[in-house]
Every structure is written in C-alpha cells, then in structure tokens.
Amino acid sequence: MGTKRTDEFRADAVRIALTSGLTRKQVASDLGIGISTLNKWVTAHRDTDVVSKEDLDLARENERLRRENRILKEEREILKKATQFFAGQKP
C-alpha cells in the first residue's frame, strides 16, 4: 500500500501541477507519486483555493512568454538561413 500524504503535500502538488508549466507526468515523477494519483488530486482540488488567481495569471503569462520565445527562436533560425543563402549568391 502507498504512503499517506499530508493535505499540505497534496495542495502543493496540485499548485505545482497547475502553475509550473511542467507536464503532470513530470511533476508526478519529481514528487515520487503516480500520475493517476496526481490527476485525482487535481480533480478533487480544482474548485478549491489551492491555486491563487495570481498564481494562475503568472502561469498563463509564463506559457504565453514560452510560446512567444519559441516563435522568435524559429524566426531567428529562418533569418540565419536566409542570410547564409543570400551571402553565398553573387550579384
């Protein structure tokens, strides 16, 4: 039988799962719990105040910034390739 976790541990696990930007699988692995256990905790705590509005806002902003950063990196790579292509051509 598994280890009994405290309510505080469960609340922290839910907060991390919802705001860290990591996958639930990664969070569960890092915390040493099963993914199904974490999913049950998240479902059970979804309507509670485990995660503050500020935490959710920060998580959304982080996700937006990660997406923007990924797009900018892709654009930079395209510009590098275009520069190399045009630098190799003679007028």
TrEMBL record:
Keyword Transport: no
Provenance organism: Epibacterium ulvae
Swiss-Prot/TrEMBL GO biological process terms: DNA transposition
UniProt keyword list: Coiled coil
Superkingdom of the source species: Bacteria
Keyword Transmembrane: no
Molecular functions per Gene Ontology: DNA binding; transposase activity
This protein's name: Transposase
Cited Pfam families: HTH_Tnp_1
InterPro entries: Homeodomain-like_sf (IPR009057), Transposase_8 (IPR002514)
Coiled coil: 55-82
